[in-house]
Every structure is written in structure tokens, then in C-alpha cells.
TrEMBL record, chain A:
Name of the protein described by the UniProt record: Alpha-ketoacid dehydrogenase subunit beta
Stored InterPro entries: THDP-binding, Transketo_C/PFOR_II, Transketolase-like_Pyr-bd, Transketolase_C
Record's keyword annotation contains Oxidoreductase: yes
Keywords from the named record: Oxidoreductase, Thiamine pyrophosphate
Molecular function GO terms recorded: magnesium ion binding; oxidoreductase activity
Domain Transketolase-like pyrimidine-binding: 10-185
Chain segments annotated as coiled-coil in the UniProt record: none
Gene3D superfamilies: 3.40.50.920, 3.40.50.970
Annotated organism of origin: Nesterenkonia natronophila
Domain of life of the native organism: Bacteria
From TrEMBL, chain B:
Native species: Nesterenkonia natronophila
Statement: the UniProt record of this protein carries the keyword Oxidoreductase: yes
Protein name: Pyruvate dehydrogenase (Acetyl-transferring) E1 component subunit alpha
Molecular function terms from GO: magnesium ion binding; oxidoreductase activity, acting on the aldehyde or oxo group of donors, disulfide as acceptor
GO BP: any one term: branched-chain amino acid catabolic process
CDD domains from the UniProt entry: TPP_E1_PDC_ADC_BCADC
Coiled coil spans: none
Compositionally biased residues, Polar residues: 1-10
């Protein structure tokens, strides 16, 4: 990576790639491994060039076995490394779940904090890219439900860089969900400015911290649309469309599911008095359900209408030609906004 | 491509010149296949009566020779065997008295338990299972700290990093991958740490067993996989787990050497494991050792062994008791005398009585600690839940106070 000039354009993918190479540069104990991450640079090229730059001891291909990848990462973390492992696709992380649930999530608690596992599990997730079965799952709820894991999911290029750096430096294990449909999205972010901010410890460069920092990405006064990861951009588009109908919608990006920023959530809902929660995953027993429950518990007296969810249907992810019917889109969000008892 | 036998592409093959297996086998003057295959019969150095087996009948062969450990080491092993047996039986009794929640006993398997600890250097690592209490104690972890989990006070009571002993836990064979990762990290830093990765016979059917052996072999890391084949996985006999000629044979498919040893023969277990650890360290490659042994007591206190095995089978294994064999051998060799034996018994008794005392005392755990280690810094939600429990506890304390 040559040092970027002030007005360069970065993609979500290059932000993640640069975050890893900067972290490897900054800390010798950071190692990256997984399936095809070495010579090929990963099937999405997120680890492109890391082996070339840092050698096969720092970024390497493993045998094809997800439990093996996660389980050996546990051992590496026990023995002083900070592994960043890649699961090739959301649904192919499932063979690793025993290691994730029974050890990665529990090791610190089991050992009374004596063995912490500072590791990152990167998972490309979600749909909208025409992927076939097993390549489009939104599996964040499984991990968020498991105490001991942190769950991050960036929605912008700058957040991708800063949140991955923070994930790698976190003492707890972080499951890092990368919305695949955003990989090729671009922004006028200068990665070297972000690097400087992060490495000089600027407070504003820490986007999660111990308690989470949800961010208002669009201000509004009538309703809060709460979202995260791949759905944030859809929520913003819906807010823009709603503005044409005279509804002023605020959009909140949660950024992390764990830690969960209840303060920002309560702040926006108390301000607007209405809430719609948007997520790609099936709605039943989901992160969207959790957000909705929290709003009900904390903001009941500020609410002018029931809290609604706009999520994927409660079905296995559909085939590529049918996914548009499944994913929450602008119209479905606008329909939900219409239902928020505006009569008064 | 017309003749697949002669045109096999060398770049696709692994046990080629230059590979660790090739080099190791060449150093013994045997082929890679001969090196990887277990010796023709179980390695045994003491017969069931405790007499030394003539060296040409020990089951070893070229490339599979195992020197008998020094007298000093054997005496130390014997002391650990006696202590181990005492610990097993004391804990078994404590479970029946309701002082322990559970205790998976290794009564009968103590030679394996002790061998696993004594084959390692202080800088090495051990990854035990739930049944390996005696190994963990033999490695130097305070017995009371090990018992924390069986008493039900906390999941793991010792510091894994201080002792270089993984936290004992129950998801079968998951710890084998941790062992491989620890060894891999050490190798990347240029340290010559050997890791002993332990599991049972039934556990070899789990996927993580396979993945761990394969990762270890592919990354050429010094892990010794140590399988205690005690014949059963709870009620299921080995014949229902595997039809391989032996569990040691499983090594070959990964390009690793396997060895099978009499697991009730302290001398042979120690000799075989020490050699395996030495080879792993020298050549930076993994090996698999299967020890054939027997679990003399039920799987745990919750188990009814009469449903799946008969008394006769258990009685037969009694005759191969590792303690008796070792004691006879050491006495006949003049390594163990009456004074030493009395000292060893006394030391074991001390451990048992400290266990008795500690496990009958009321524990003083702090309920609020359940929130403290989930994350490096507790989340706001956990802090709120902690405050809730704290409040409940205080109200309970107050109402108990007013009732009195
Ligand atoms: C993944 C998993 N499945 C099932 C169990 C329940 N279980 C506990 S011990 C055991 C038998 C294991 O047998 P073996 O590996 O031979 O070890 P042994 O108990 O004989 O020492 C089973 C099935 C478990 N602990 N973990
Ligand atoms: Mg068994």
C-alpha cells in the first residue's frame, strides 16, 4: 500500500485490507489465516497482498476446516498472538460454531479472566449480491446471543477501517461482520488520515469502545429508523424518500450489536417518539427483536405508536432470483412508516 | 497421464525427499511407511507381574526403540502413581458424600496420567480432558485449584498460563486444536515448545480430532497427541467407534507416526511418551501415541456400568494394575525400598487429607463474580444485571436478618 494522497477514493474492501496491513505493521503478534487468504488474497481479495508483504508466517492458507481455523486461533491467542481469521462465507462458519460458542466466547469467563482471547473472526455476510444458497446468511444473532463475544458490523468505508483496527486491538474476541454488498462501495475517505487518527489514539477514531457508539447518520424529528451493517444505506434511502412525503426520519447506525449502545438508542427514540427497526436477517428471535424490546422497555412513555420491524422473512435465504422479494427495501420501510399512527 | 503409477506428479505428494517424515525415517534407516506405522505389537516393558520384558520382546523395532528412563525418574513416577491413585479414590468418596458435584475418575489409568505429566519440560504445554485431573496435579497444579470445577465453585480454578496447562473442559477433542494453535504460535516465534494434546478413545471419532491431527501435520508443529484408550466412551465400546487396526494407525493418514503402548505399564508409557516428545522437539513434527488401558470405575458417579460391561472384564484388568506392576519392578530392581515406599504413601495421604478438608469446608464464592469476566470491561447491560443481583442478595440478607 503506497501512502494515499489527500483526495483518494477508498473502497470498503481496501479499507479492510489496509486496516489489516496497518495492524500487522503496528503489532508483530497479529497473524491472518483462513481459506485462500494467502496467495489468492481471499475470495473477496480482502487479504490481498498481505502474504507478499508480511510473509507466510504472518498471513497463510490453512487446510479446509473451519473448526480447525477457529480452534487453532484459540491456541494462538492463548500463546500470545492476535489472530485475525477469515471465514470464507457466513454459512461456512457453522462448522466452527462449537469452538466459537464453547471456547472463544467462554474462555475468559471460565478462567476468571486469566486467559483472554484477543482474536477477530471476520465473516462476509448478508445478501444482495446474487449469491447462491449458503452464501447470503445474516447470522449475527447467533453470535450476539452468545455471551462473551463482541459483534461489530460497519456500514461505511471509514467505519470499516476504524472498526477493524479497533476489533484487532480489543482484548475480547470480536466477530466482525462485513456486509458483502458493501465491499465495492466507495467513499472519499483518505485511509492515511484515518490511520494517523487511529494510531495517535484520537478519541473520535474509536467507534465502539466498551459500551458501543451508535451513530446518527441522518438527523430527523418524526421517526427513528434503527439499523446496522448492510441495511443502513437502505434506511437512509428510505429516509430521503420519506422526506418527500413530509416525514422527517432520523437514521441510527448501531455499528456494534455487542456492545449495545442503549443510550443512543433511547436518545433518538425519545426525541422522535416513533421507531422502525430495519435488518436483513429473519425477524423472528433476532437482533431487530432485541432492539425493539429495549425500546419498549426504556421508551414506552415517549412512544406515539408501536415499534415496527422491517426484516427478512422467516425463511431460509431464497435463491438469487428471488432475493429481492426477501430483503427489506425502501418501499417496505416506507410502508412501515405509513403505519406509525400519524393521525394526531 | 496414460500411466498413473509412473507419472504421479511429485508436487502433489508429501512424503517425499526433504519432508520431515522422510528425514526422520531415513535417520532410522527405515521407510516413511515403516516409520509412520506403529510397531508390530503394543510396546510393553513390564509384564503383568512387574518383571522386565526381554528387550527383543518389548514390541519395539528399528526406529521404534525406547530407552528405559533413569531410576530417579521412575521413582518419581511411582510416587505420582501412588498419589494419583489416592487422589482418585479420595475424590470418588467425596462425590458419594455429596461433597463434590462430579468426578471422572482415572483409577486404573494412572500410568497414563503420570506419564503425560512427566514427559514434559516446564516450558511445554499440556491440554488435558475432564478425566485428566491426576495429570494436571502431577504437572504441579495445586490439587485444590483443580478441584474447584468438580466442586462446582467455578469452571476452572487454576491459571492455565502459569502452569502451561489448558483449562480442562468437556467438549470432546476441542482442546486438541488449542494445543495445535499453541504449538504453532511457539513455532512462529522460534520457540521449541512441545505440546501434549490429550483425549480418549471415543473422542477420536469427533471432527476436531481429525482437524487437529491434520493441521499439526500440515504446519509441522511439535504436538504429541496422546489417546488414552480405556475401551469405552461412557457405555459405547471402541469397536463401535472405529474399525481401524488400532487408534495409533489413524496417524498415518495425516502423514504422522503413530505408536501403541501398554497403558498400564508405567515404564513403557513414560519411555514412549518421552521419546515422542523428544522426536517432536527435534524434528518439529507431530506424533500420535495410543495407550491401551482401562477405566476401572464408572464413567462418572452418574453412570451405571453394570448396563454395559460385566464384572469379569473389570476383574481381568485388575491383574494389570499399573501400581502393582511398577511397585514390584522397582522393588526387585532395588530402586524402591521400604523407607521410600512409606514416605511416598505418607505424601499421598497428605494430599488426600488436604482434599478432604478443603472439600468439606464451605466455599466462599461471590455470586456477583459471575458478571466480572465475561468481557475485559463489563457492558452497561451486565453492570445493570450485576446491580440487580446485588440488590436481591441484600434484600435476602436483610429479610433473613429480620426473621432471626
Ligand atoms: C462434543 C461432546 N459430545 C458428547 C459429550 C458427552 N460425553 C462426555 S464424556 C463422553 C465419552 C467420551 O469417551 P472417551 O473419549 O473414550 O473418554 P473417556 O471418558 O473414556 O475418558 C461423552 C459422550 C461431550 N462431552 N462432548
Ligand atoms: Mg474411553
Amino acid at each position: 500500500m503506497s501512502t494515499a494522497t489527500a483526495t483518494s477514493t477508498a473502497t470498503f474492501a481496501s479499507a479492510l485490507n489496509t486496516a489489516m496491513s496497518d495492524a500487522m505493521e503496528a503489532d508483530e503478534s497479529v497473524v491472518v489465516f483462513g481459506e485462500d487468504v494467502g496467495t489468492l488474497g481471499g475470495v473477496f481479495r480482502i487479504t490481498d497482498g498481505l502474504t507478499k508483504r508480511f510473509g507466510t508466517n504472518r498471513c497463510f492458507d490453512t487446510p479446509l476446516a473451519e473448526s480447525g481455523i477457529a480452534g487453532t486461533a484459540v491456541g494462538m491467542a492463548i500463546n500470545g498472538m492476535r489472530p485475525v481469521i477469515e471465514m470464507q462465507f457466513d454459512a461456512f462458519a457453522y462448522p466452527a460454531l462449537e469452538q466459537v460458542f464453547s471456547h472463544i466466547a467462554k474462555m475468559a469467563n471460565r478462567t476468571r479472566g486469566r486467559v483472554r482471547l484477543p482474536m477477530v473472526i471476520r465473516i462476509p455476510y448478508g445478501g444482495g449480491v446474487g449469491g447462491v444458497e449458503h452464501h447470503c446468511d445474516s447470522s449475527e444473532a447467533y453470535y450476539a446471543h452468545t455471551a462473551g463475544l463482541k459483534v461489530f458490523t460497519p456500514a461505511t468505508v471509514a467505519d470499516a477501517y476504524l472498526m477493524l483496527r479497533e476489533a484487532i486491538d480489543t482484548e475480547d474476541p470480536v466477530v466482525f461482520f462485513e456486509p458483502k454488498k458493501l465491499y465495492w462501495s466507495k467513499a472519499d475517505d483518505d485511509l492515511s488520515t484515518l490511520r494517523e487518527a487511529y494510531e495517535s489514539g484520537t478519541e473520535s477514531s474509536r467507534l465502539v469502545g466498551a459500551q458501543g457508539q451508535a451513530v446518527v447518520v441522518r438527523e430527523g424529528t418524526d421517526v427513528s429508523i434503527i439499523s446496522y451493517g448492510p441495511s443502513v444505506s437502505t434506511a437512509v434511502k428510505a429516509a430521503e424518500a420519506a422526506a418527500e412525503d413530509g416525514i422527517s426520519a432520523e437514521v441510527l447506525d448501531m455499528r456494534s450489536v455487542v456492545p449495545f449502545d442503549e443510550v443512543a438508542l433511547v436518545r433518538t427514540v425519545e426525541k422522535t417518539g416513533r421507531a422502525v427497526v430495519v435488518a436483513e436477517a429473519q425477524g423472528f428471535v433476532s437482533v431487530a427483536s432485541e432492539i425493539t424490546a429495549r425500546i419498549q422497555e426504556r421508551c414506552f412513555h415517549s412512544l406515539a405508536s408501536p415499534v415496527l420491524r422491517v426484516t427478512g422473512f422467516d425463511i431460509p435465504y431464497p435463491a438469487p432470483k428471488l432475493e429481492e422479494h426477501h430483503l427489506p427495501d425502501v418501499n417496505r420501510i416506507l410502508d412501515a412508516l405509513d403505519e406509525l399512527q400519524w393521525e394526531d | 497421464m496414460d500411466d498413473p503409477v509412473t507419472t504421479s506428479d511429485p508436487s502433489h505428494a508429501k512424503a517425499e525427499q526433504g519432508s520431515r517424515i522422510f528425514e526422520a525415517s531415513r535417520s532410522f534407516g527405515i521407510t516413511p511407511e515403516q516409520y509412520m506405522l506403529p510397531a508390530q505389537q503394543q510396546i510393553q516393558m513390564l509384564d503383568p507381574e512387574g518383571a522386565l520384558v526381554p528387550s527383543d520382546e518389548q514390541g519395539t523395532g528399528p526406529g521404534h526403540e525406547y530407552p528405559i528412563p533413569e531410576a530417579e525418574v521412575l521413582l518419581k513416577a511411582y510416587a505420582a502413581l501412588v498419589a494419583g491413585r489416592r487422589i482418585n479414590d479420595q475424590n470418588y468418596a467425596l462425590v458419594r458424600q455429596g461433597r463434590l458435584a462430579v468426578y471422572p475418575s482415572s483409577h486404573g489409568q494412572e500410568a497414563c496420567q503420570v506419564g503425560a505429566a512427566l514427559c514434559l519440560e516446564p516450558g511445554d504445554w499440556m491440554f488435558p480432558t475432564y478425566r485428566d485431573t491426576v495429570s494436571v496435579i502431577s504437572r504441579g497444579v495445586d490439587p485444590l485449584d483443580v478441584m474447584v470445577s468438580f466442586r462446582g465453585d467455578w469452571h476452572c480454578g487454576y491459571d492455565p498460563k502459569e502452569h502451561r496447562v489448558g483449562s480442562m473442559s468437556t467438549p470432546l477433542t476441542t482442546q486438541l486444536l488449542h494445543a495445535v494453535g499453541v504449538a504453532h504460535a511457539a513455532k512462529l516465534r522460534g520457540e521449541d515448545t512441545v505440546v501434549l494434546a490429550m483425549c480418549g478413545d471415543g473422542a477420536t471419532s469427533e471432527g476436531d480430532f481429525h482437524e487437529a491431527l491434520n493441521f499439526a501435520a500440515v504446519f509441522e508443529v511439535p504436538v504429541v497427541f496422546f489417546v488414552q484408550n480405556n475401551g469405552y466412551a461412557i457405555s459405547v465400546p471402541l469397536s463401535s467407534q472405529s474399525v481401524a487396526p488400532s487408534l495409533a494407525h489413524k496417524a498415518i493418514g495425516y502423514g504422522m507416526a503413530g505408536e501403541q503402548v501398554d497403558g498400564n505399564d508405567m515404564v513403557a508409557v513414560l519411555a514412549t511418551l518421552r521419546r515422542a516428545v523428544h522426536l517432536a522437539r527435534e524434528n518439529s513434527m507431530p506424533l500420535l501415541v495410543e495407550a491401551v488401558t482401562y477405566r476401572m470405575q464408572a464413567h462418572t458417579n452418574a453412570d451405571d456400568e453394570t448396563r454395559y460391561r460385566d464384572r469379569e472384564e473389570v476383574e481381568q484388568w485388575k491383574r494389570k494394575d499399573p501400581l502393582v506392576r511398577m511397585q514390584r519392578y522397582l522393588t526387585s530392581e532395588g530402586i524402591l525400598n521400604d523407607d521410600a515406599a512409606a514416605e511416598i504413601t505418607e505424601a499421598a495421604e497428605k494430599v488426600a487429607s488436604s482434599l478432604r478438608q478443603a472439600m468439606t469446608a464451605d466455599p466462599a464464592e461471590n455470586p456477583l463474580e459471575i458478571f466480572d469476566h465475561v468481557y475485559a470491561e463489563p457492558t452497561a447491560q451486565l453492570l445493570a444485571q450485576r446491580a440487580q443481583l446485588d440488590d436481591e442478595l441484600q434484600r435476602t440478607a436483610t429479610s433473613e436478618g429480620t426473621q432471626r
